[in-house]
Amino acid sequence: MNVVNLQQKFSLFSDHWHPRIIGELNGQLVKIAKIQGEFIWHSHANEDELFMVIEGQMWIDFRDKTVALNPGELIVVPGGVEHRPRTEGEVKIMLFEPASTLHTGEVEHELTKNDQKLI
Amino acid sequence: MNVVNLQQKFSLFSDHWHPRIIGELNGQLVKIAKIQGEFIWHSHANEDELFMVIEGQMWIDFRDKTVALNPGELIVVPGGVEHRPRTEGEVKIMLFEPASTLHTGEVEHELTKNDQKLI
User: Fold this and answer.
1) What ipTM score was computed for the predicted complex, to two decimals?
2) Is residue B107 included in any domain, yes or no?
3) Potential cystine with B30: which of A106, B23, B47, B95 (Cβ 3.0-4.6 Å)?
4) Cβ–Cβ contact A111 with B under 8 A
5) What is the tally of structural domains in chain B?
């Protein structure tokens, strides 16, 4: 039962679009990621996903709108909703999702990462 | 599916030890609270609880140790573990926990709040 410092955890890696697990509770995982550029369109059939921006600005494209997220802002993307995260510079985000969630959703892609251990 | 700004949500209330719901996903709730002073000792039998500090500094007493949490830091308190949140000044925190969690845990107390709607 340890205190997790987000910036210390971000300092442990530098690659983009590769979420790391920093906590788990009730079958859910808390993850962080550095992201930059445009991700792929995807959805998670039955799993809601929370995005929170820690540093930088990101956009999430939906099929019918785009939202901007700044530090201290979050959004819950319901299961089944197609979305595409996108940034200009590097952005630090926190994610909250079920342990079963693959970040590329239904899409098997070279970007797919599936770490199962805490950093 | 809206963007939630934490500071805007914090501006909607001023009472202490009264968590408000700002999001829900996969049967879990995202809550925020303003806290000040000492809460009661309590535990949640089967529910893990995440505390993250947004502003200020808090301590969480456990029976065998005390941890300090600063902005950008979080901790997961496993189900069954007795804990007591404590601050000096006002502190803004974010919580993740199952929808079934009462913040005073097994203890029925005048501080017990049980809001079930999003603000």
Assistant:
1) 0.90
2) no
3) B23
4) no
5) 1
